[in-house]
Specification:
Blueprint: H1 6-19, E1 22-26, H2 32-42, E2 45-47, H3 55-61, E3 64-68, H4 74-90, E4 94-97, H5 105-115, E5 122-126, H6 127-135, E6 160-164, E7 167-172, E8 175-180, H7 192-210, H8 220-242, H9 247-258, H10 264-273
Parallel strand pairs: 1-2, 1-3, 3-4, 4-5, 5-6
Antiparallel strand pairs: 6-7, 7-8
Helix pairs in contact: 1-7, 1-8, 1-10, 2-7, 3-4, 7-8, 8-9
């Protein structure tokens, strides 16, 4: 299933809860509470530092890192550069989420500068964001995904791309895995894209251990496993939330579902997808 057995995917989330990974996330204030709650629901420990002056020290303590570039500022750009460099030197797992990068020249320039640094990990975004990056032009659609299917030309950087949408796509080199959402939530909840980035950060920690890689080396296989696991975990959670009768109830259902990813209910759901 999607190159991995259901047992492998389920094991990622079992390990997250058992190991209680410390995931440092540079957040944006719009989605920070949802991301923190989502990580806690998985069994991870969220840490959300923002000051550039403490980034090196924080990264040295974390098991995984997520950089959310929403609400971009010069201070956030400086902090992100420190995290990327420190994580690359230490071999720390990393997720970069270029939120709304095609909305302004300032954001696009900042993202391009960060991508030029020699880090490895997962670049997670919707099709609009990753199209903007690959084509190096503004889309004006902001954080909403483009409806039309855009061709994403791959760059051989040792990174994995997680493209979110009605059908998620995991791309690396010249290969791709597709994960369709069986039932999309109709509530259009704010922050679910950012939450997907946070979940991916926790999955990288577990997948790295499962692929038997030391913390000094990030393997492409572990990044693929992390991206597929995160996409399936979010697909499950959003499907559960889609059955809710109200916006607030849907958000609670989403978090509750994330808390079930290490349980039999999720394992049974994966078996159905086989």
């Amino acid at each position: 299933m999607f190159e991995y057995a259901p047992e492998q995917i389920a094991e990622v989330f079992v390990r997250i809860r058992a190991r209680n990974y410390l995931v440092h996330m540079i957040p944006n204030t719009v989605s920070a509470p949802l991301c923190a709650d989502g990580l806690a629901a998985l069994g991870a420990r969220p840490l959300m530092a923002v000051a550039a002056e403490e980034m090196a020290e924080i990264v040295s303590q974390a098991d995984g890192c997520v950089i959310n570039l929403g609400q971009m500022t010069k201070e956030k750009q400086k902090a992100a550069r420190i995290v990327l460099k420190q994580a690359a030197e230490a071999g720390r797992p990393l997720v970069l989420d270029p939120v709304g990068c095609g909305a302004s020249r300032f954001r696009m320039q900042a993202v391009q500068q960060l991508l030029a640094l020699p880090w490895q990990g997962i670049l997670k975004g919707n099709r609009s964001e990753l199209y903007s990056i690959q084509q190096q032009k503004l889309t004006r659609e902001g954080i909403d995904s483009l409806e039309e299917r855009s061709l994403l030309h791959q760059i051989s950087t040792g990174r994995v791309y997680l493209v979110t949408g009605e059908t998620d796509e995991i791309l690396w080199k010249d290969k791709m895995i597709q994960i369709p959402h069986r039932a999309a939530s109709h509530w259009n909840m704010v922050g679910t894209g950012c939450l997907a980035g946070a979940v991916t950060g926790a999955c990288i920690c577990a997948a790295g251990e499962m692929c038997r890689e030391s913390m000094e080396k990030i393997s492409l296989e572990s990044l693929k496993l992390a991206a597929v696991s995160a996409a399936l975990g979010m697909a499950f959670a959003l499907e559960q939330a889609g059955a809710a009768e109200g916006y607030g109830t849907a958000k609670s259902a989403l978090l509750n579902a994330l808390g079930q990813l290490s349980a039999k209910h999720f394992s049974d759901w994966l078996q159905i997808l086989k």
